[in-house]
Amino acid sequence: MRRSWRSLAIGVFVVSLLLGGVAGNRLLALGDEARDGLRLYTELVEAARAHYGTEVKYRDLVYASVQGVLRTLDPHTSFLSPEAYVNMRERQQSSFYGLGILVGMRNNLLTVISPIDGTPAARQGIRAGDVIHTIEDQPTDTLTLDEAVQRLKGPKGTQVRISIVRRGLDEPLGLTITRAEIPQTTVRYSYLIAPDTGYMLISDFGRGTGDEVARALRELRERGMRRLLLDLRNNGGGLLDQAIEVADQFVPKGSKIVETRGRTRDSFQAYEAGGEHADLAMPVVVVVNGGTASAAEILAGAIQDHDVGIIVGVPTWGKGLVQTVYGLSYGAGLALTTAKYYTPSGRLIQRDYSEYFDYLYQADTPGGDETPRLATPPPGQEFRTDLGRKVYGGGGITPDRVVQPQELPAFLQYLLAHNAFFDFAVETNNREPVEDRSWQPDAELGDRFQAWLRRESLGTEEEIAKAFADARTRELALRQVHAELFNSAFGLEGGHQVLARDDSQLQAALVEFERAAALLAARQELRQARAERPAATAAN
Protein backbone atom coordinates (compact mmCIF):
# COMPACT_ATOMS: atom_id res chain seq x y z
CA MET A 1 0.00 0.00 0.00
CA ARG A 2 2.85 2.36 0.79
CA ARG A 3 4.34 1.75 -2.65
CA SER A 4 1.02 2.40 -4.38
CA TRP A 5 0.63 5.77 -2.67
CA ARG A 6 4.22 6.68 -3.53
CA SER A 7 3.30 5.89 -7.14
CA LEU A 8 0.23 8.07 -6.87
CA ALA A 9 2.32 10.92 -5.49
CA ILE A 10 4.62 10.67 -8.50
CA GLY A 11 1.69 10.41 -10.89
CA VAL A 12 -0.05 13.40 -9.36
CA PHE A 13 3.05 15.52 -9.55
CA VAL A 14 3.54 14.70 -13.22
CA VAL A 15 -0.10 15.44 -13.97
CA SER A 16 0.32 18.76 -12.20
CA LEU A 17 3.25 19.56 -14.47
CA LEU A 18 1.50 18.51 -17.63
CA LEU A 19 -1.96 19.83 -16.66
CA GLY A 20 -3.82 16.87 -18.01
CA GLY A 21 -1.34 15.63 -20.59
CA VAL A 22 -0.30 12.00 -20.98
CA ALA A 23 2.53 11.69 -18.52
CA GLY A 24 3.88 8.21 -18.06
CA ASN A 25 6.10 7.73 -21.12
CA ARG A 26 6.95 11.41 -21.38
CA LEU A 27 8.57 11.79 -17.98
CA LEU A 28 12.09 11.76 -19.37
CA ALA A 29 11.14 14.48 -21.85
CA LEU A 30 10.30 16.90 -19.06
CA GLY A 31 13.89 17.90 -18.56
CA ASP A 32 16.20 18.20 -15.59
CA GLU A 33 14.14 20.87 -13.82
CA ALA A 34 11.02 18.70 -13.79
CA ARG A 35 12.92 15.62 -12.63
CA ASP A 36 14.56 17.62 -9.85
CA GLY A 37 11.15 18.91 -8.77
CA LEU A 38 9.75 15.40 -8.81
CA ARG A 39 12.61 14.12 -6.66
CA LEU A 40 12.13 16.98 -4.17
CA TYR A 41 8.39 16.34 -3.99
CA THR A 42 8.69 12.62 -3.28
CA GLU A 43 11.40 13.27 -0.67
CA LEU A 44 9.11 15.79 1.04
CA VAL A 45 6.16 13.38 1.11
CA GLU A 46 8.35 10.56 2.42
CA ALA A 47 9.91 12.76 5.13
CA ALA A 48 6.50 13.99 6.32
CA ARG A 49 5.12 10.45 6.35
CA ALA A 50 8.11 9.09 8.28
CA HIS A 51 8.91 11.84 10.77
CA TYR A 52 5.88 14.07 11.40
CA GLY A 53 4.85 14.34 15.06
CA THR A 54 1.64 12.36 14.57
CA GLU A 55 0.81 9.66 12.07
CA VAL A 56 -0.17 10.88 8.62
CA LYS A 57 -1.18 8.92 5.55
CA TYR A 58 0.33 9.15 2.10
CA ARG A 59 -3.15 9.68 0.68
CA ASP A 60 -3.79 12.72 2.87
CA LEU A 61 -0.44 14.28 2.00
CA VAL A 62 -0.89 13.69 -1.72
CA TYR A 63 -4.46 14.99 -1.81
CA ALA A 64 -3.53 18.12 0.18
CA SER A 65 -0.59 18.87 -2.10
CA VAL A 66 -2.75 18.41 -5.20
CA GLN A 67 -5.30 20.90 -3.88
CA GLY A 68 -2.50 23.36 -3.22
CA VAL A 69 -1.17 23.02 -6.77
CA LEU A 70 -4.58 23.47 -8.36
CA ARG A 71 -5.50 26.48 -6.23
CA THR A 72 -2.76 28.44 -7.99
CA LEU A 73 -4.65 28.03 -11.28
CA ASP A 74 -8.27 29.12 -10.80
CA PRO A 75 -11.19 28.55 -8.40
CA HIS A 76 -12.86 25.88 -10.56
CA THR A 77 -10.01 23.56 -11.48
CA SER A 78 -10.36 20.79 -8.92
CA PHE A 79 -9.08 17.37 -7.96
CA LEU A 80 -11.76 14.73 -7.52
CA SER A 81 -11.08 11.97 -5.05
CA PRO A 82 -12.35 8.53 -6.16
CA GLU A 83 -15.46 9.07 -4.01
CA ALA A 84 -16.08 12.56 -5.39
CA TYR A 85 -15.50 11.36 -8.96
CA VAL A 86 -18.10 8.61 -8.57
CA ASN A 87 -20.58 11.04 -6.96
CA MET A 88 -20.10 13.57 -9.76
CA ARG A 89 -20.77 10.99 -12.47
CA GLU A 90 -23.77 9.66 -10.57
CA ARG A 91 -25.31 13.13 -10.21
CA GLN A 92 -25.11 13.61 -13.96
CA GLN A 93 -27.09 10.46 -14.72
CA SER A 94 -30.81 10.60 -15.47
CA SER A 95 -31.67 7.95 -12.86
CA PHE A 96 -30.35 5.84 -9.99
CA TYR A 97 -31.54 2.86 -7.96
CA GLY A 98 -32.96 3.54 -4.53
CA LEU A 99 -36.11 4.00 -2.48
CA GLY A 100 -37.59 7.19 -3.90
CA ILE A 101 -37.43 9.67 -1.04
CA LEU A 102 -36.05 13.16 -0.59
CA VAL A 103 -34.22 13.30 2.73
CA GLY A 104 -32.47 15.99 4.74
CA MET A 105 -31.12 16.68 8.21
CA ARG A 106 -33.78 18.16 10.49
CA ASN A 107 -32.67 18.82 14.08
CA ASN A 108 -29.70 16.54 13.31
CA LEU A 109 -32.06 13.68 12.41
CA LEU A 110 -32.23 11.99 9.01
CA THR A 111 -35.73 13.04 8.01
CA VAL A 112 -37.94 12.29 5.02
CA ILE A 113 -38.80 15.59 3.34
CA SER A 114 -41.08 13.99 0.78
CA PRO A 115 -41.62 10.56 -0.80
CA ILE A 116 -41.67 10.55 -4.61
CA ASP A 117 -44.95 9.39 -6.12
CA GLY A 118 -44.94 5.89 -7.59
CA THR A 119 -41.68 4.79 -5.95
CA PRO A 120 -41.09 1.90 -3.51
CA ALA A 121 -41.01 4.29 -0.53
CA ALA A 122 -44.36 5.84 -1.45
CA ARG A 123 -45.96 2.45 -2.02
CA GLN A 124 -44.88 1.27 1.43
CA GLY A 125 -46.39 4.29 3.15
CA ILE A 126 -43.33 6.34 4.08
CA ARG A 127 -44.46 9.88 4.93
CA ALA A 128 -42.96 13.34 5.11
CA GLY A 129 -41.58 13.83 8.62
CA ASP A 130 -40.62 10.19 9.17
CA VAL A 131 -37.18 9.93 10.79
CA ILE A 132 -34.98 7.16 9.40
CA HIS A 133 -33.61 5.70 12.62
CA THR A 134 -31.46 2.84 11.29
CA ILE A 135 -30.22 1.55 7.94
CA GLU A 136 -29.31 -2.14 8.03
CA ASP A 137 -29.30 -1.90 11.84
CA GLN A 138 -26.77 0.97 11.85
CA PRO A 139 -28.05 4.09 13.65
CA THR A 140 -28.20 7.02 11.28
CA ASP A 141 -27.05 9.50 13.92
CA THR A 142 -23.51 8.21 13.28
CA LEU A 143 -23.73 8.94 9.54
CA THR A 144 -23.42 12.08 7.47
CA LEU A 145 -26.22 12.87 5.04
CA ASP A 146 -24.11 11.71 2.08
CA GLU A 147 -23.17 8.47 3.84
CA ALA A 148 -26.81 7.72 4.65
CA VAL A 149 -27.92 8.42 1.07
CA GLN A 150 -25.24 6.10 -0.30
CA ARG A 151 -26.44 3.31 2.01
CA LEU A 152 -30.03 3.77 0.85
CA LYS A 153 -28.98 3.44 -2.79
CA GLY A 154 -27.89 0.15 -4.33
CA PRO A 155 -28.31 -2.23 -7.27
CA LYS A 156 -31.75 -2.60 -8.80
CA GLY A 157 -33.87 -5.31 -7.15
CA THR A 158 -31.81 -5.50 -3.95
CA GLN A 159 -33.39 -4.86 -0.57
CA VAL A 160 -32.53 -2.53 2.28
CA ARG A 161 -33.80 -2.74 5.86
CA ILE A 162 -34.63 0.50 7.60
CA SER A 163 -36.49 1.53 10.72
CA ILE A 164 -38.40 4.78 11.00
CA VAL A 165 -39.59 6.84 13.93
CA ARG A 166 -42.98 8.43 13.37
CA ARG A 167 -44.95 10.79 15.58
CA GLY A 168 -47.78 8.84 17.20
CA LEU A 169 -45.96 5.48 17.16
CA ASP A 170 -44.46 4.18 20.40
CA GLU A 171 -41.83 2.02 18.70
CA PRO A 172 -39.74 2.38 15.53
CA LEU A 173 -41.39 0.84 12.49
CA GLY A 174 -39.25 -1.68 10.61
CA LEU A 175 -39.47 -1.84 6.81
CA THR A 176 -37.75 -3.87 4.11
CA ILE A 177 -37.84 -2.03 0.80
CA THR A 178 -36.79 -3.27 -2.63
CA ARG A 179 -34.73 -0.76 -4.57
CA ALA A 180 -35.99 0.33 -7.98
CA GLU A 181 -35.01 2.80 -10.69
CA ILE A 182 -35.68 6.35 -9.53
CA PRO A 183 -35.75 9.17 -12.11
CA GLN A 184 -33.25 11.90 -11.25
CA THR A 185 -35.17 14.86 -12.59
CA THR A 186 -33.67 18.28 -13.20
CA VAL A 187 -36.93 19.96 -14.22
CA ARG A 188 -38.05 20.09 -10.60
CA TYR A 189 -41.33 21.95 -11.09
CA SER A 190 -43.53 22.41 -14.14
CA TYR A 191 -47.05 23.77 -13.75
CA LEU A 192 -49.37 26.62 -14.72
CA ILE A 193 -48.61 29.53 -12.40
CA ALA A 194 -51.50 31.43 -14.05
CA PRO A 195 -54.22 30.18 -16.43
CA ASP A 196 -52.14 30.84 -19.57
CA THR A 197 -48.65 31.05 -18.00
CA GLY A 198 -46.37 28.04 -17.69
CA TYR A 199 -43.74 27.88 -14.95
CA MET A 200 -40.65 25.70 -15.17
CA LEU A 201 -37.76 25.40 -12.71
CA ILE A 202 -34.55 23.74 -13.92
CA SER A 203 -32.33 22.84 -10.95
CA ASP A 204 -29.22 21.82 -12.95
CA PHE A 205 -28.19 20.21 -16.24
CA GLY A 206 -27.86 16.42 -16.18
CA ARG A 207 -28.01 13.70 -18.83
CA GLY A 208 -31.76 13.95 -19.35
CA THR A 209 -32.38 17.69 -19.02
CA GLY A 210 -32.96 18.35 -22.70
CA ASP A 211 -35.60 15.62 -22.93
CA GLU A 212 -37.19 16.74 -19.65
CA VAL A 213 -37.54 20.31 -20.89
CA ALA A 214 -39.03 19.19 -24.20
CA ARG A 215 -41.54 16.99 -22.40
CA ALA A 216 -42.46 19.72 -19.91
CA LEU A 217 -42.98 22.29 -22.69
CA ARG A 218 -45.19 19.88 -24.58
CA GLU A 219 -47.32 19.10 -21.52
CA LEU A 220 -47.64 22.78 -20.58
CA ARG A 221 -48.77 23.65 -24.10
CA GLU A 222 -51.41 20.93 -23.90
CA ARG A 223 -52.65 22.50 -20.66
CA GLY A 224 -53.05 25.92 -22.26
CA MET A 225 -49.66 27.63 -21.85
CA ARG A 226 -49.30 30.75 -23.99
CA ARG A 227 -46.27 32.24 -22.25
CA LEU A 228 -43.42 30.80 -20.16
CA LEU A 229 -41.75 31.79 -16.89
CA LEU A 230 -38.39 30.00 -16.69
CA ASP A 231 -36.72 29.84 -13.26
CA LEU A 232 -32.93 29.36 -13.28
CA ARG A 233 -32.28 30.63 -9.77
CA ASN A 234 -29.68 28.62 -7.85
CA ASN A 235 -29.00 26.48 -10.93
CA GLY A 236 -25.27 25.89 -10.64
CA GLY A 237 -24.87 24.44 -14.14
CA GLY A 238 -23.86 20.98 -15.26
CA LEU A 239 -23.33 19.40 -18.64
CA LEU A 240 -22.56 21.74 -21.54
CA ASP A 241 -24.24 19.55 -24.16
CA GLN A 242 -27.49 19.62 -22.19
CA ALA A 243 -27.40 23.41 -21.83
CA ILE A 244 -27.00 23.59 -25.62
CA GLU A 245 -29.86 21.13 -26.16
CA VAL A 246 -32.14 23.20 -23.92
CA ALA A 247 -31.11 26.47 -25.58
CA ASP A 248 -31.87 24.88 -28.95
CA GLN A 249 -35.52 24.78 -27.84
CA PHE A 250 -35.56 28.55 -27.28
CA VAL A 251 -33.32 30.33 -29.81
CA PRO A 252 -33.78 30.50 -33.62
CA LYS A 253 -32.31 27.81 -35.86
CA GLY A 254 -28.73 28.49 -36.90
CA SER A 255 -28.11 31.10 -34.19
CA LYS A 256 -25.08 30.86 -31.96
CA ILE A 257 -25.69 29.54 -28.44
CA VAL A 258 -22.23 29.81 -26.91
CA GLU A 259 -18.59 30.00 -27.89
CA THR A 260 -15.58 28.61 -26.03
CA ARG A 261 -12.08 30.04 -26.36
CA GLY A 262 -8.94 28.65 -24.77
CA ARG A 263 -5.22 28.17 -25.33
CA THR A 264 -5.29 25.12 -27.59
CA ARG A 265 -6.79 24.88 -31.08
CA ASP A 266 -9.49 22.38 -30.11
CA SER A 267 -10.72 24.66 -27.29
CA PHE A 268 -12.12 27.13 -29.84
CA GLN A 269 -15.65 25.94 -30.48
CA ALA A 270 -18.87 27.66 -31.53
CA TYR A 271 -22.17 25.89 -30.84
CA GLU A 272 -25.28 26.73 -32.84
CA ALA A 273 -28.95 25.82 -32.62
CA GLY A 274 -29.68 22.85 -34.87
CA GLY A 275 -33.36 23.64 -35.18
CA GLU A 276 -34.45 20.19 -34.07
CA HIS A 277 -37.38 21.67 -32.14
CA ALA A 278 -40.31 23.79 -33.26
CA ASP A 279 -40.04 27.51 -32.65
CA LEU A 280 -41.27 28.26 -29.12
CA ALA A 281 -43.12 31.32 -30.47
CA MET A 282 -44.30 32.68 -27.13
CA PRO A 283 -43.21 35.39 -24.67
CA VAL A 284 -40.52 34.19 -22.24
CA VAL A 285 -39.33 35.67 -18.94
CA VAL A 286 -36.31 34.18 -17.16
CA VAL A 287 -35.57 34.61 -13.44
CA VAL A 288 -31.92 34.46 -12.27
CA ASN A 289 -29.93 35.19 -9.13
CA GLY A 290 -26.41 34.99 -7.72
CA GLY A 291 -26.65 31.19 -7.65
CA THR A 292 -27.27 30.98 -11.41
CA ALA A 293 -23.96 29.80 -12.85
CA SER A 294 -22.11 28.15 -15.72
CA ALA A 295 -24.47 26.18 -18.01
CA ALA A 296 -27.45 28.12 -16.63
CA GLU A 297 -25.69 31.37 -17.57
CA ILE A 298 -25.12 30.01 -21.08
CA LEU A 299 -28.86 29.47 -21.44
CA ALA A 300 -29.78 32.85 -19.95
CA GLY A 301 -27.16 34.61 -22.07
CA ALA A 302 -28.38 33.01 -25.31
CA ILE A 303 -31.99 33.92 -24.51
CA GLN A 304 -31.04 37.53 -23.75
CA ASP A 305 -28.64 38.04 -26.66
CA HIS A 306 -31.14 36.70 -29.20
CA ASP A 307 -33.99 38.72 -27.64
CA VAL A 308 -35.98 35.56 -26.95
CA GLY A 309 -36.97 36.74 -23.49
CA ILE A 310 -36.61 39.23 -20.65
CA ILE A 311 -34.21 38.49 -17.78
CA VAL A 312 -35.39 39.38 -14.24
CA GLY A 313 -33.64 39.09 -10.86
CA VAL A 314 -30.11 39.96 -9.80
CA PRO A 315 -26.78 39.44 -11.62
CA THR A 316 -25.72 35.82 -12.02
CA TRP A 317 -22.63 34.26 -10.47
CA GLY A 318 -20.25 34.77 -13.40
CA LYS A 319 -18.81 31.26 -13.79
CA GLY A 320 -17.58 30.97 -17.35
CA LEU A 321 -14.60 28.66 -17.06
CA VAL A 322 -14.91 25.43 -19.05
CA GLN A 323 -13.78 22.29 -17.24
CA THR A 324 -12.69 19.12 -19.02
CA VAL A 325 -12.69 16.09 -16.74
CA TYR A 326 -9.75 13.69 -16.99
CA GLY A 327 -9.61 10.28 -15.35
CA LEU A 328 -6.56 9.67 -13.15
CA SER A 329 -5.11 6.61 -11.47
CA TYR A 330 -6.88 4.87 -8.58
CA GLY A 331 -10.32 6.09 -9.72
CA ALA A 332 -9.56 9.78 -9.11
CA GLY A 333 -10.32 12.61 -11.53
CA LEU A 334 -9.19 16.08 -12.53
CA ALA A 335 -11.65 18.80 -13.57
CA LEU A 336 -9.26 21.07 -15.47
CA THR A 337 -10.14 24.50 -16.84
CA THR A 338 -9.44 24.44 -20.58
CA ALA A 339 -11.41 27.42 -21.97
CA LYS A 340 -13.83 30.25 -21.24
CA TYR A 341 -17.48 30.74 -22.22
CA TYR A 342 -18.67 33.68 -24.35
CA THR A 343 -22.31 34.51 -25.09
CA PRO A 344 -23.55 34.99 -28.69
CA SER A 345 -22.95 38.76 -28.51
CA GLY A 346 -19.37 38.16 -27.39
CA ARG A 347 -19.73 38.72 -23.65
CA LEU A 348 -17.33 36.88 -21.36
CA ILE A 349 -19.38 35.09 -18.70
CA GLN A 350 -16.47 34.61 -16.27
CA ARG A 351 -16.20 37.12 -13.42
CA ASP A 352 -12.81 38.33 -12.24
CA TYR A 353 -11.29 35.92 -9.69
CA SER A 354 -7.99 37.66 -8.94
CA GLU A 355 -9.16 37.98 -5.31
CA TYR A 356 -9.86 34.34 -4.46
CA PHE A 357 -11.85 34.86 -1.24
CA ASP A 358 -13.95 37.71 -2.66
CA TYR A 359 -14.76 35.60 -5.70
CA LEU A 360 -15.89 32.53 -3.77
CA TYR A 361 -17.92 34.42 -1.18
CA GLN A 362 -19.00 37.37 -3.35
CA ALA A 363 -17.64 39.78 -0.76
CA ASP A 364 -18.50 42.71 -3.03
CA THR A 365 -22.18 41.74 -2.85
CA PRO A 366 -23.40 41.99 0.77
CA GLY A 367 -25.82 39.22 1.58
CA GLY A 368 -25.31 37.61 -1.81
CA ASP A 369 -28.25 39.21 -3.61
CA GLU A 370 -28.88 42.48 -1.77
CA THR A 371 -26.94 44.73 -4.13
CA PRO A 372 -26.48 44.20 -7.89
CA ARG A 373 -22.84 43.41 -8.56
CA LEU A 374 -22.81 45.32 -11.84
CA ALA A 375 -24.58 48.60 -11.06
CA THR A 376 -22.38 50.41 -13.63
CA PRO A 377 -21.09 48.48 -16.67
CA PRO A 378 -17.26 48.45 -16.93
CA PRO A 379 -15.67 50.46 -19.76
CA GLY A 380 -15.63 48.62 -23.05
CA GLN A 381 -18.04 45.95 -21.85
CA GLU A 382 -21.13 47.08 -23.75
CA PHE A 383 -22.57 44.68 -26.32
CA ARG A 384 -25.68 44.51 -28.52
CA THR A 385 -28.40 41.91 -28.85
CA ASP A 386 -29.92 40.87 -32.20
CA LEU A 387 -32.42 43.72 -31.91
CA GLY A 388 -29.79 46.24 -30.82
CA ARG A 389 -30.53 46.30 -27.10
CA LYS A 390 -27.58 47.06 -24.83
CA VAL A 391 -26.23 44.21 -22.69
CA TYR A 392 -23.14 44.21 -20.53
CA GLY A 393 -20.08 42.03 -20.09
CA GLY A 394 -17.64 41.86 -17.25
CA GLY A 395 -18.86 38.53 -15.92
CA GLY A 396 -22.23 36.95 -15.43
CA ILE A 397 -25.58 37.98 -16.89
CA THR A 398 -27.02 41.35 -15.89
CA PRO A 399 -30.84 41.20 -15.78
CA ASP A 400 -32.98 43.49 -17.90
CA ARG A 401 -34.82 44.32 -14.69
CA VAL A 402 -33.12 44.05 -11.30
CA VAL A 403 -35.47 42.72 -8.61
CA GLN A 404 -34.26 41.92 -5.12
CA PRO A 405 -35.53 38.85 -3.25
CA GLN A 406 -37.82 39.51 -0.31
CA GLU A 407 -36.52 38.44 3.08
CA LEU A 408 -38.67 36.83 5.74
CA PRO A 409 -38.92 38.75 9.04
CA ALA A 410 -36.13 37.81 11.44
CA PHE A 411 -38.35 35.78 13.78
CA LEU A 412 -39.71 33.70 10.88
CA GLN A 413 -36.16 33.07 9.68
CA TYR A 414 -35.39 31.77 13.16
CA LEU A 415 -38.43 29.46 13.02
CA LEU A 416 -37.45 28.27 9.55
CA ALA A 417 -33.93 27.44 10.73
CA HIS A 418 -35.42 25.38 13.58
CA ASN A 419 -37.78 23.47 11.25
CA ALA A 420 -40.83 24.86 13.07
CA PHE A 421 -43.08 25.08 10.01
CA PHE A 422 -42.10 21.59 8.84
CA ASP A 423 -42.59 19.96 12.25
CA PHE A 424 -45.91 21.68 12.88
CA ALA A 425 -47.18 20.71 9.42
CA VAL A 426 -46.20 17.06 9.92
CA GLU A 427 -48.01 16.95 13.28
CA THR A 428 -51.06 18.70 11.84
CA ASN A 429 -51.20 16.54 8.73
CA ASN A 430 -50.99 13.35 10.79
CA ARG A 431 -54.01 14.50 12.80
CA GLU A 432 -56.03 16.27 10.10
CA PRO A 433 -54.73 15.40 6.60
CA VAL A 434 -55.19 17.99 3.88
CA GLU A 435 -56.87 16.30 0.92
CA ASP A 436 -58.16 19.18 -1.22
CA ARG A 437 -55.89 21.58 -3.14
CA SER A 438 -58.44 24.35 -2.62
CA TRP A 439 -57.85 24.20 1.15
CA GLN A 440 -56.78 27.51 2.73
CA PRO A 441 -55.42 28.19 6.25
CA ASP A 442 -57.55 30.29 8.59
CA ALA A 443 -56.98 32.43 11.68
CA GLU A 444 -57.69 29.46 13.96
CA LEU A 445 -54.75 27.57 12.43
CA GLY A 446 -52.56 30.59 13.09
CA ASP A 447 -53.59 30.58 16.76
CA ARG A 448 -52.83 26.86 16.99
CA PHE A 449 -49.40 27.46 15.46
CA GLN A 450 -48.58 30.14 18.03
CA ALA A 451 -49.71 27.83 20.85
CA TRP A 452 -47.53 25.08 19.38
CA LEU A 453 -44.52 27.42 19.29
CA ARG A 454 -44.98 28.18 22.98
CA ARG A 455 -45.35 24.49 23.81
CA GLU A 456 -42.18 23.65 21.88
CA SER A 457 -40.29 26.57 23.53
CA LEU A 458 -39.51 28.15 20.14
CA GLY A 459 -39.69 31.66 21.55
CA THR A 460 -40.86 33.37 24.69
CA GLU A 461 -44.46 34.47 25.15
CA GLU A 462 -43.36 38.06 24.55
CA GLU A 463 -41.33 37.25 21.41
CA ILE A 464 -44.15 35.26 19.83
CA ALA A 465 -46.80 37.86 20.68
CA LYS A 466 -44.65 40.72 19.35
CA ALA A 467 -43.86 38.92 16.09
CA PHE A 468 -47.43 37.88 15.34
CA ALA A 469 -48.86 41.29 16.21
CA ASP A 470 -47.67 42.31 12.74
CA ALA A 471 -50.26 41.40 10.09
CA ARG A 472 -47.63 40.75 7.41
CA THR A 473 -45.70 38.39 9.70
CA ARG A 474 -48.90 36.44 10.45
CA GLU A 475 -49.66 36.20 6.74
CA LEU A 476 -46.15 34.97 5.86
CA ALA A 477 -46.13 32.47 8.74
CA LEU A 478 -49.43 30.97 7.59
CA ARG A 479 -48.04 30.86 4.04
CA GLN A 480 -45.07 28.81 5.25
CA VAL A 481 -47.35 26.43 7.17
CA HIS A 482 -49.63 26.20 4.14
CA ALA A 483 -46.67 25.28 1.92
CA GLU A 484 -45.40 22.60 4.30
CA LEU A 485 -48.87 21.06 4.59
CA PHE A 486 -49.07 20.92 0.80
CA ASN A 487 -45.54 19.44 0.63
CA SER A 488 -46.78 16.59 2.81
CA ALA A 489 -50.10 16.16 1.03
CA PHE A 490 -49.26 16.78 -2.63
CA GLY A 491 -45.47 16.69 -2.96
CA LEU A 492 -42.94 19.49 -3.16
CA GLU A 493 -44.50 21.04 -6.25
CA GLY A 494 -47.70 21.65 -4.29
CA GLY A 495 -45.80 23.55 -1.62
CA HIS A 496 -43.84 25.47 -4.25
CA GLN A 497 -47.03 26.75 -5.85
CA VAL A 498 -48.09 28.17 -2.50
CA LEU A 499 -44.78 29.96 -1.85
CA ALA A 500 -44.73 31.39 -5.39
CA ARG A 501 -47.57 33.72 -4.41
CA ASP A 502 -45.23 35.65 -2.09
CA ASP A 503 -42.06 35.33 -4.18
CA SER A 504 -41.15 38.93 -5.04
CA GLN A 505 -38.99 37.97 -8.02
CA LEU A 506 -41.58 35.62 -9.54
CA GLN A 507 -44.35 38.15 -9.06
CA ALA A 508 -42.22 40.85 -10.68
CA ALA A 509 -41.43 38.49 -13.55
CA LEU A 510 -45.14 38.03 -14.26
CA VAL A 511 -45.40 41.77 -14.88
CA GLU A 512 -42.67 41.64 -17.55
CA PHE A 513 -44.60 39.56 -20.09
CA GLU A 514 -45.75 42.70 -21.88
CA ARG A 515 -42.11 43.55 -22.63
CA ALA A 516 -41.43 39.93 -23.56
CA ALA A 517 -44.36 39.99 -26.00
CA ALA A 518 -42.97 43.18 -27.58
CA LEU A 519 -39.62 41.45 -28.06
CA LEU A 520 -41.33 38.48 -29.70
CA ALA A 521 -43.19 40.79 -32.11
CA ALA A 522 -39.99 42.70 -32.96
CA ARG A 523 -38.13 39.44 -33.64
CA GLN A 524 -40.88 38.27 -35.96
CA GLU A 525 -40.82 41.58 -37.84
CA LEU A 526 -37.03 41.36 -38.20
CA ARG A 527 -37.23 37.80 -39.47
CA GLN A 528 -39.95 38.73 -41.96
CA ALA A 529 -37.94 41.70 -43.21
CA ARG A 530 -34.88 39.50 -43.75
CA ALA A 531 -36.99 36.92 -45.58
CA GLU A 532 -38.43 39.56 -47.91
CA ARG A 533 -35.10 41.24 -48.67
CA PRO A 534 -33.79 38.67 -51.23
CA ALA A 535 -37.16 38.69 -53.03
CA ALA A 536 -37.11 42.49 -53.29
CA THR A 537 -33.54 42.40 -54.66
CA ALA A 538 -34.50 39.82 -57.28
CA ALA A 539 -37.50 41.93 -58.36
CA ASN A 540 -35.26 44.91 -59.00
Low-confidence stretches: 13-28, 363-375
**Order of strands in the sheet with most strands:** 10-11-12-15-16-21
- Number of domain units: 4
Oligomer: single chain
Helical residue percent band: 40-55%
User: Quick one: overall form?
Assistant: globular
Radius of gyration: 27 Å
Number of alpha- plus pi-helical segments? 18
Model description:
The chain is α+β, with helices and mostly antiparallel strands. It has four domains: 2-72, no CATH class; 95-183, Roll (Pdz3 Domain); 187-323 and 335-402, 2-enoyl-CoA Hydratase, Chain A, domain 1 (Alpha-Beta Complex), CATH 3.90.226; 410-502, no CATH class. It is 40% helix and 20% strand. The protein is built from 18 helices and 21 strands. It has a six-stranded mixed β-sheet with strand order 10-11-12-15-16-21, sandwiched between helices. Strand 15, helix 9 and strand 16 (309-313) form a beta-alpha-beta unit. Helix 1 runs antiparallel to helix 2, helix 8 (240-247) runs parallel beside helix 9 and helix 15 runs antiparallel to helix 16. The termini are far apart. Residues 13-28 and 363-375 have low confidence and may be disordered.
Descriptive labels:
540 residues, alpha+beta, Pdz3 Domain, 2-enoyl-CoA Hydratase, Chain A, domain 1, 4 domains, six-stranded mixed β-sheet, five-stranded antiparallel β-sheet, 21 strands, 40% helix, globular
